[in-house]
Amino acid sequence: MTTSSIQHIAVVGAGLMGHGIALELAAYGYDITLHDRDQSQLERARGGITEGLARLVDIGRITAKEAAGAPARIAMGTDLRSAVAGADLVIEAVSENIEVKRTVFRDIDAWAPRHAIFASNTSTFMPSLLAAATTRPERVLVAHYFNPPYLLPLVELVRGDLTNDETVATMRALYEGIGKSPAVVQREAPGFVGNRLQMALLREALAIVDAGIASPRDVDTIIKTSFGRRLAVAGVFEVFEAAGWDLTLAVADQLFPVIERSTEPPLSLREKVARGELGLKTGKGFYDWTPEEAAALRGRIGNALAAIARLSDA
Ligand SMILES: NC(=O)c1ccc[n+]([C@@H]2O[C@H](COP(=O)([O-])OP(=O)(O)OC[C@H]3O[C@@H](n4cnc5c(N)ncnc54)[C@H](O)[C@@H]3O)[C@@H](O)[C@H]2O)c1
């Protein structure tokens, strides 16, 4: 199957990720069916699609005319069977629950055309687990986006044990064709690559706060005003190539023995979650959030990502 043979894409799950994935593909001319079992989620998705398309115009990725044409290419519905019946590619973005996902994969395997590729946006589940619910494991893989999916270029394409080269090549070409940055994860591993790296940083940040070395606010300042800024334009290997591996080894000799190595999240985090301090959505996490402050943070992240997208050729 070639990229040009992908015309019709079904996106299953119209939440935060699903609607964002759908709007970008529609902006580039693909015919989309966006499915959710919950009609109210589809209605909410409409507003998100309009906002996301406006943002893509704002950063210069698409023209106002392309944005205006996109919503008409997104058909919405609550019937999964009809949503996937004509699909060349199905992208699954339902809730992160293995049983729910495996049921969806079993159903789409029965109802989608034999040639269709199935991609899951799961954050954690191995593609082989999902492929095993189908009769086409060679055409199943993970296509893991980061949020917001239409502003962050990366899609991790994670191969399962049986995913074939043609499937990976087709997905890579599809994403390159719409200006994204697909990266192939050759061997499936929990968390793939991006989330393993993020969690390594979070484990150390939590340990620093628990040990009283610095406050959450100061940890965030340290990240945002130093290496975080650099990481937006140079990857970890590029950064240390520039620093020199001799210096890097000397620092690693000192720090690897003392940085956090625990195999469980800290008790302090479990207690915070048990208290309902979940972050923006409950108005309190490590910081206190009024609704205005929460909206301001979301706006700041969105605006900065849009500005980086305008500048970046990464
Ligand atoms: N939120 C993120 O930052 C992020 C980033 C990368 C990947 N992901 C992954 O993307 C997937 C979706 O996450 P989200 O944040 O969009 O969640 P969400 O809760 O916003 O959306 C999930 C949607 O799936 C729908 N749904 C649930 N079961 C369904 C079913 N059986 N059939 C049809 N629709 C069903 C729900 O109604 C809901 O609209 C998850 O696997 C998640 O791990 C999320």
Helix and strand topology:
Layout: E1 8-12, H1 16-27, E2 31-35, H2 39-58, H3 64-69, E3 74-77, H4 80-84, E4 89-92, H5 98-111, E5 117-120, H6 127-131, E6 140-145, E7 154-159, H7 165-177, E8 181-185, H8 194-210, H9 216-224, H10 227-231, H11 236-243, H12 245-255, H13 267-274, H14 291-311
Parallel strand pairs: 1-2, 1-4, 2-3, 4-5, 5-6, 7-8
Antiparallel strand pairs: 6-7
Helix pairs in contact: 1-2
This protein binds nicotinamide-adenine-dinucleotide.
Question: What's the quick description here?
Answer:
With 314 residues, the protein is of the alpha/beta class.
CATH class of the largest domain: Alpha Beta
The number of helices is: 14
Shape: globular
* Strand order in the largest sheet: 3-2-1-4-5-6-7-8
For the report, how would you describe the main beta sheet?
Answer: 8 strands, mixed
How far the N terminus sits from the C terminus, by CA atoms, comes to 28 Å
SS content category:
alpha/beta
Output mean pLDDT: 95
Number of strands: 8
Domains counted in the coordinates: how many?
3
CATH architecture name of the largest domain: 3-Layer(aba) Sandwich
User: What amount of the residues lies in strands?
Assistant: 5-15%
CATH superfamily of the largest domain: NAD(P)-binding Rossmann-like Domain
Give the C-alpha Rg: 21 Å
Looking at the structure, the CATH topology of the largest domain is: Rossmann fold
